[in-house]
């Protein structure tokens, strides 16, 4: 097989497309297949920097890890980073090319990008046995079909079979499957090979009559029923918001090694970006992570994290409006730990000069770190390495703000003053030795008898999660039929379902 492919679409956003795509990738690579992921257009505030300095969605970086290959800009040629209700930063082939309103993007530029998207996909297919593509939202968003470059536009342009995933835990999955197909044109319907049920609880035999009826109505079969599993939502896309759930961890009951647990509160700032930074903390036994938006929720926290954001000045105002700014200042005065990452680091400083992101000019920061920030038009996209607390650290940087550090102690190209730390480095807490050293510092400052686990490997945890996704596909999908679909495309002669049928 060479250049085989499949597009994983969904009946809705958050139907499970990202994890199903990753699961298929991991299943294939375990069969010795050279496979790569692809998503033509991604809207997400969770992004990653490749080794060549390109910015792509974190979901595609996670899927590349599932394939056991390095992520590249080819895997996510268009990334949209929301900056508000009406506009997004457009990142093309890993580099920002400007801000654009939703109307402006859908009205013109989007369709012109289809050629770029198909060229990237063709290049990936030429170098791999298979490419597993992920759609966005639903292929039945008929108001956007004319300018679609991520769902049926890609499927038809690249002659890919489409597998539609539906989340049965939400209810209405049969209607969603049928309606998705019925709303498509005859040409689009010809690409839709069948369905994959996701997040099923209970006895599969009770579902089979409905799947048989769906087959009879649409002429399309189910390729599997995946059971409901917790802890699989790794590196999810976030759209415009983030659910206030804790990040994925192996066990919510993992006991601490010491006498105390360590409580981490993450300020849920507007347009939060790369909140996946805290996943590595949540993986530690005895560490409890939660997202918060009220001052009272900081009271019992041993560590408060101010995460990255696509809107630093807006987040600063939000902290002040909610009283969180005063709570952070009080913590710093008491010597209680605070960590700012990227935008969170910037707003902890003395001032921000921003004529790029918010265009608000000079704004006073929280003054907890001796840092002055100036926003540059060029975005910093790097993969730095260094040392902190006696341990080697790797990270990645994605920011317009340029920090001038005027005091304090050096800390990962940022600084530390007392119990307040700040850095532009995303992903630094995934470095196991550094994470443990940092948690020891936090525990000491908080007066907790907490002991980090000496053998927690975040990389190994992620590998186990990806293997769990591969297991789901191998054990609960018809892998022989999936293989034929990837290798040969959608079956010929699939029936057309007129909108409104059956009578």
Query: How many angstroms separate the termini?
Result: 42 Å
Number of beta-strand segments:
27
- What is the residue-mean pLDDT, rounded to a whole number? 90
Main pleated sheet: 7 strands, mixed
- Given helix and strand content, the structural type is alpha/beta
CATH architecture identity of the largest domain: 3-Layer(aba) Sandwich
Domains (count): 2
CATH fold name of the largest domain: Rossmann fold
Description:
Residues 263-432 form the CobB/CobQ-like glutamine amidotransferase domain. InterPro entries: Class_I_gatase-like (IPR029062), CobQ/CobB/MinD/ParA_Nub-bd_dom (IPR002586), CobQ_GATase1 (IPR033949), CobQ_N (IPR047045), CobQ_synth (IPR004459), GATase_3 (IPR011698), P-loop_NTPase (IPR027417). Pathway: Cofactor biosynthesis; adenosylcobalamin biosynthesis. One of its GO terms (molecular function) is catalytic activity. Pfam families: CbiA, GATase_3. The protein is an alpha/beta fold. It has 2 domains: 4-233 and 463-488, 3-Layer(aba) Sandwich (Rossmann fold), CATH 3.40.50; 262-453, Rossmann fold. The strands form 7 sheets. A 7-stranded mixed β-sheet has the order 15-13-16-18-27-26-25. Helix 1 packs parallel to helix 2 (58-66) and helix 4 crosses helix 5 (152-158). The longest helix is centred in the C-terminal third of the chain and has 19 residues, at 458-476. It is globular. The relative contact order is 0.13. The model is unreliable at 239-253 (pLDDT under 50).
């Amino acid at each position: 097989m060479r250049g085989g492919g499949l597009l994983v679409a969904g009946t809705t956003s958050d139907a499970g497309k990202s994890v199903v795509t990753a699961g298929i990738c991991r299943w294939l690579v375990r069969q010795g297949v050279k496979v790569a992921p692809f998503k033509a257009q991604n809207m997400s505030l969770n992004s990653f920097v490749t080794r060549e300095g390109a910015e792509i969605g974190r979901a595609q970086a996670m899927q590349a890890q599932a394939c056991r290959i390095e992520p590249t800009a080819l895997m996510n040629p268009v990334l949209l980073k929301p900056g508000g209700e009406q506009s997004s930063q457009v990142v093309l082939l890993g580099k920002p090319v400007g801000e654009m309103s939703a109307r402006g993007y859908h009205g013109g530029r989007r369709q012109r990008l289809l050629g770029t998207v198909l060229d990237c996909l063709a290049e990936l297919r030429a170098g791999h046995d298979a490419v597993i593509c992920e759609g966005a939202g639903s292929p039945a968003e008929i108001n956007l079909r004319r300018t679609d470059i991520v769902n049926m536009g890609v499927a038809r342009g690249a002659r890919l079979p489409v597998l539609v995933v539906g989340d049965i835990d939400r209810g209405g999955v049969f209607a969603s499957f049928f309606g998705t197909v019925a709303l498509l044109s005859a040409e689009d319907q010809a690409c839709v090979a069948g369905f994959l049920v996701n997040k099923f609880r209970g006895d599969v035999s009770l579902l089979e009559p409905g799947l048989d009826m769906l087959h009879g109505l649409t002429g399309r079969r189910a390729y599997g029923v995946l059971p409901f599993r917790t802890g699989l939502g790794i590196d999810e896309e976030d759209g415009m918001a983030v659910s206030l759930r804790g990040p994925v961890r192996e066990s919510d009951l993992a006991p601490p090694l010491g006498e105390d647990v360590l409580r981490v509160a993450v300020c849920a700032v507007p347009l939060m970006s790369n909140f996946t930074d805290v996943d590595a903390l949540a993986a530690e036994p005895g560490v409890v992570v939660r997202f918060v938006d009220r001052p009272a929720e900081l009271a019992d926290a041993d560590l408060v994290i101010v995460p990255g954001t696509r809107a630093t000045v807006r987040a600063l105002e939000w902290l002040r409006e909610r009283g969180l700014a005063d709570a952070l200042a009080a913590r710093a005065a008491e010597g209680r730990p605070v960590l700012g990452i990227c935008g969170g680091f910037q707003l902890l400083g003395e001032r921000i000069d921003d004529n790029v992101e918010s265009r608000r000019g000079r704004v006073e920061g929280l003054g907890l770190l001796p840092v002055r920030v100036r926003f540059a038009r060029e975005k910093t996209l790097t993969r730095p390495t260094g040392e902190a607390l006696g341990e080697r650290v790797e990270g990645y940087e994605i920011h317009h703000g340029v920090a001038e550090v005027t005091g304090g102690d050096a800390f990962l190209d940022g600084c530390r003053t007392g119990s307040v730390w700040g850095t532009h480095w995303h992903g630094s807490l995934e470095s196991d030795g550094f994470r443990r050293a940092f948690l020891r510092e936090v525990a000491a400052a908080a007066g907790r008898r907490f002991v980090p686990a000496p053998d927690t490997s975040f990389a190994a945890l992620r590998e186990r999660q990806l293997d769990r996704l591969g297991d789901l596909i191998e054990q609960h999908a018809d892998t022989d039929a999936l293989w034929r679909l990837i290798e040969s495309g959608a079956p010929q002669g699939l029936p057309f379902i007129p909108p409104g049928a059956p009578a």
